[in-house]
Amino acid sequence: MPTIPQDPNKFRCPWCMGFEQYIKYHDEEWGVPVYDDQTHFEFLILESAQAGLSWATILKKREGYRHAFADFDYQVVADLPDSYVTELLQDPSIIRNELKIRAAINNAKRFMEIQSQFGSFSKYIWEFVDGKVIDRQLRSMQNAPATTPESDKLAKDLKKRGFKFLGSTTIYAHMQATGLVNDHLTTCFRYEEVKLLAK
């Protein structure tokens, strides 16, 4: 697939310049601070499915995941039976990996345990950045870290709570996607826009 050229009047982070769906994701979602639990759960499912794959692959299957996992309703996902896991292993609209599918169901249960303890998953996760967006003011993609002390700490805590397929690299991607970190390049048109959305 040919790479879509940069718009000289609207510079974007170079990583999204692959296809229209990727650009739309970058322009409308990536880096926007998320305080809604269902959105956090959606990204946790998608990011755990990404392990070993590209985010572009997951984006292309996002609607498949939405359908397969009850519009990312964690209460429904937590109760999915083994027979449904077998069914999903035949579904080409998602990544047919049994460990990842079972991890999604497990993580839904652990997700609700956090809600019970902290009031919401959002409240829990934002505590790892002291409730404030980390602004790295990146000038180059080469300066973007794969993990940080915050993602290390969060991933370690999630693992202790029983979450699966959510290591530090995956969790840092979650932090970037859900706006705990603003990792848009400072030259990207979304950098200032996202900055204004922080509470």
Fill in the keyword field for this structure.
single chain; 199 residues; mainly alpha; Endonuclease III, domain 1; two-stranded parallel ribbon; 2 strands; DNA_glycosylase; metal ion binding; metal-binding
Word description of this protein:
With 199 residues, this protein is mostly helical. It has a single domain (30-195), classed as Endonuclease III, domain 1 (Orthogonal Bundle). The chain has 11 helices and 2 strands. It has helices at 20-28, 37-50, 55-60, 62-68, 74-78, 82-88, 98-118, 121-126, 149-160, 168-177, 189-195, and strands at residues 134-135, 181-182. It has a two-stranded parallel ribbon. The model has no long low-confidence stretch (mean pLDDT 94).
Q: CATH superfamily membership, which one?
A: Hypothetical protein, domain 2
User: Counting H and I runs of at least 4 residues, what is the number of helices?
Assistant: 11
CATH top level is: Mainly Alpha
The count of strands amounts to: 2
Q: Which percent range fits the helix content? A: 40-55%
Q: Determine the N-to-C terminus distance.
A: 38 Å
Q: What count of domains describes the coordinates? A: 1
**What is the makeup of the main sheet?**
2 strands, parallel
- Neighbour order of strands in the largest sheet: 1-2
CATH topology: Endonuclease III, domain 1
Shape: globular
CATH architect. name: Orthogonal Bundle
**Spatial extent as radius of gyration:** 17 Å
* Order of helical and strand elements: HHHHHHHHEHHEH
Strand content: under 5%
The poorly predicted ranges are none
**Broad structural category:** mainly alpha
Q: What is the residue-averaged pLDDT?
A: 94
